[in-house]
Amino acid sequence: MKLPVAPTDLATLLERLLAHETSNETILRLLLHGLGPTPGGKYRHWDILRHLTPPSGLSHEEWWAGIKVARRPLYKPLPMVDRDGNPFKFAVVDPGLKMLHEIDQQASGAIGETEHVTDPGTRERDLIHSLFEEAITSSQLEGASTTRAVAKEMLKRDRAPRDRSEQMIYNNYQAMQFIRRVTKERLTPSIVCELHRTLTEGTLDDPSAAGRFRRPDEPITVYDDAGQVLHHPPSADQLKGRIDRLCTFANDASDQPFIHPVVRAIMLHFGLAYDHPFVDGNGRTARALFYWGMASRGYWLSEYLSISSVIKAAPSKYNRAFLYTETDENDATYFILNQLSVIVRAIRELHRYLQRKTASLRATRRLLQDLPGVEPAVNHRQLALIHHAIEHPGFLYTITSHRRSHGISYQTARTDLLMLVKLLLLDQSKRGRAFVFRAPSDLAERVGRTSTT
Fold first, then answer.
1. How far is the C-alpha of 272 from the C-alpha of 270, rounded, in Å?
2. In this predicted model, what pLDDT tens digit does every residue of 152-190 receive, in sequence order?
3. Which of 95, 261, 263, 329 has its CA 20 to 30 A from that of 341?
């Protein structure tokens, strides 16, 4: 990607503008224009602004100076520093406040349109679906090449990974479950290292690097796909202190200064990605820390979101937001706004998924109403399987895959499937020593349907 052009720092820019013989006129023009921090409602970087048409009577540099002056009073300090010891900061601006309001409404309290996810009968299945999705896309962001269908088959059947890509996805799934177990614990460097070990076990060139910080003899630089340097992380000798500081920030419950919990979770993501404390797997670990940060502050819906799928759709925006922060006085607002938009989009996509799922299950239940003794007998898990089986004739199910899909015991899964065989909605056979259950090719006809949607 093309590296952004860094702006001149404000002090130097103002000195240059005010040294001109018409400096009084310059000041008057800036005051009259009343420039705000977000021209056009967007928090633009100099690299974008320099290509836009400035307000009448202003040069690009004068326009940028006015915007930066307007941002100054809005900055809040962060207890995080770059590799040279300079602090990061962020501005509280209207676009961010609007997205935070939507996230607060949708991700932490009761939500009317997604009663499907609050139903104890369906909640575990939907969570598992989301864990699958995040495990797959987070790994694909880091180079895993396994298809989604193959990856889901592996996770549902609890099959051993067959290659590095599958191992990455399997590890990511295990890591998301690990996060659920430690949500109530204080974040510590040992938890961060255990999370990394879980994510990278069996996938590193040097197996000893799993779960430990990189050593001084393991320098690391972040490049783009074209080999261009994007980021120089802090040296290895800084890592212990930096991760200690990151954990202190994660656990801080004070209001001095108040940092919104979602912003705090986003900055956990940023901080780990900036430090790049491991030889590999930093991106996956950073995204996993974000989930811990959200869940630990009561944002329960975050368990159902896949931020990696949104980032994967536009990776250049993610990289650019990171670079904008580094090139504009450590202003983390760029990264925060980018990730807020990712969260909002992930929430909206979750709502659409749940609405589709609820509608399809209701339609399937209506199909079963005319079959004697069937509709009242099937539970929500069996209903979901019937819906899937109608649309996938010949698909094979196992007790293990049904158990993993719904987070239930082996015996409960077995009972579910045998009941569907008894109702003539699945065919049963044996493969080796294990039973398999096949979606009948004529299932649509069996339930009184002649076509699928």
1. 6
2. 889 888 899 999 999 999 999 999 999 999 999 999 999
3. 329
Task: Based on the fold, state whether residues 38 and 94 are members of the same structural domain.
Answer: no
Q: How does DSSP assign 357-382, residue by residue?
A: HHHHHHHHHHHHTTSTTTTTT--HHH
Residue 46 CB neighbour total at 10 angstroms:
22
Count of domains forming the chain: 3
What does 188-238 look like in DSSP terms, one character per residue? -HHHHHHHHHHHHTTTSSSGGGTTSPPPTTS---EE-TTS-EEE-PPPGGG
The torsion defined by the Cα of 273, 274, 277 and 279, in degrees rounded to 10, comes to: 70
Distance spanning both ends of the chain, measured CA to CA: 41
Domain that holds residue 432: 372-446
Q: What are 420-450's pLDDT values in tens digits?
A: 999 899 999 988 888 999 999 999 888 875 3
Tell me: do 150 and 265 sit in the same domain: yes
Q: What is the pTM of this model?
A: 0.87
Q: State the DSSP code for 57.
A: T
Whether 30 and 105 share a structural domain: no
Spatial distance between the Cα atoms of 160 and 150, rounded to a whole number of angstroms:
12
Q: Where does a domain end: 352, 384, 399? A: 352
